[in-house]
Amino acid sequence: QGRSEPDPEYAIVTRLIRTATDAGLRANPIAVINLYVALKSKPLTILAGPEQSGKIALVWSLAQVLTGGDRLQCQMMIGHAWWAERSSDVSFGARTQTRFNTEKIFALIEEALQPANSQRVYLACLTRISPAELTGYFSEVAFQLGHGQIMRLPGNHLTEPIPYPPNLLIVGTMDTSRPDWPDADLHSQTTVIRWPAIETESTGRNSQAQALPGSEREFLRSCIRSEQAARLKLHRILGWWPQSSPPFIEIECLLRKHSVALPDSVRDEVLIYLANAWTRNGRGLFDSAHPHNMTMALDLAMGQIILPRLSATIRHSVTLRKQLGEALEGRFPCSAELLNSLT
Question: Which of these, 34, 334, 32, lies nearest to 204 by C-alpha position?
Fold first, then answer.
C-alpha cells in the first residue's frame, strides 16, 4: 500500500503546538487545539485565565503559524490602558488607548476586505482587557455581526455600515479565573475559553517563526460557520447526526425535565464547533479516532457553548446542578470543571 497524503490542516495544528512549546508554553495540546477550533467556528474569542499563564504567547504562536507574524496582518495591542493608572489623567490615557486600538482594527478590516487579500488571515489581539473592552469590542461587535455588518467600534461610529470580513479574527485575553458572563449577544459570535493555569518559560513575543506555507488558505477553506455546512460535513465524515449521540440526548432530556430548552441557535453553534473539530479531509483534530474526537469536542462545546447560557438557571437549581454533574462526571472533564465553578 502507498503512503497516504499528509493532511494540510492537521499539519497546521501540529506546527501550532510545536511553536507554542518553543515559545515556552507548557500546555495540554487539547487546550491549544481548542483555540484553533474555536476561531474556525466564530470570529471572536476571549482567552480568560490567570495572569502570566501564556495566553498572549498562544495567540502570538497562532499568528506566526498562519501569517509568520506579519505586522500588516497581525496586531498585538494593549487592550486596556492599565498604564494610565500611573498618569495624572487616567481618563485621557484610556480614551487615547481606545482610539488607537479602534483605528488599528478598522485598518485591519479595510485590508482584509480587499479582494486581493481574501485568502489572507488578519488577526487583532487585545491583551489584558477589562470589562469595558469586553463590552465594546466583543459584546457590541457580536451584536452587530448578528446583522452581518459592523458600524461602530469604541470611540468611532461610521456613517454607513460595512461588511465584517470573514478572514478577520479578534482575540482578547483577560486576567480572570471566573469568566461568567451570561450575555447572549457575546456568546452568539464569541467563544469564551477558560484558559488553565499553564507553566510558561517566557511570553514568546521575542520568538519568530516562519508561517507554514499554505496555512492561511487552508485555515480559511476549513472554517465552517453555518449550520447547514456543519451538518453536511459531519454526515459525510460520521454518517450520522451528532444530536443522535447518547450523551447529547441525555443532556437535552435532563434540561427538558427542568423546563429548560436549548434554542435552535445554540444547537447550531454546537454543531458548528463539532464540525470544525475535523479537518476537511475528515481527520479528527483532537484525536484520530472518531469516537474519541467526538467526545473531546462535545465536552468542550458543552462547556463553552451550552453551560454559559445556563449559568443563572444552574445557580438557582441545586437539583439541576447535581444531576448535570452526575451526567458529566467522568466522561466530560472540561464541562464538569466549569459546572463546579458555577456556585
Answer: 32
Q: Which is nearest to 140 in space by CA: 153, 149, 128?
A: 153
Name the residue among 289, 304, 305, 298 with its Cα closest to residue 327: 298
Helix extents (H) in the chain: 8-22, 29-41, 55-67, 90-112, 131-133, 140-145, 184-189, 215-222, 227-238, 246-257, 264-276, 290-301, 311-316, 318-328, 333-341
β partners of residue 77: 126
What does the DSSP assignment read for 191-202?
Answer: EEEE----EESS
pLDDT digits (tens, 9 = 90+) for 218-227: 999 999 999 9
Query: For 111, phi and psi rounded to 5 degrees?
Result: -70, -45
330 Cβ contact partners less than 8 Å away, ≥ 6 residues apart: 336
pLDDT digits (tens, 9 = 90+) for 101-153: 999 999 999 999 999 999 999 999 999 999 999 999 999 999 999 988 999 99
pTM for this one?
0.93
Cα–Cα distance, 39 to 97 (Å, whole number): 25
8-state DSSP, 7: P
Q: How far apart (Å, rounded) are the C-alpha atoms in residues 60 and 173?
A: 12
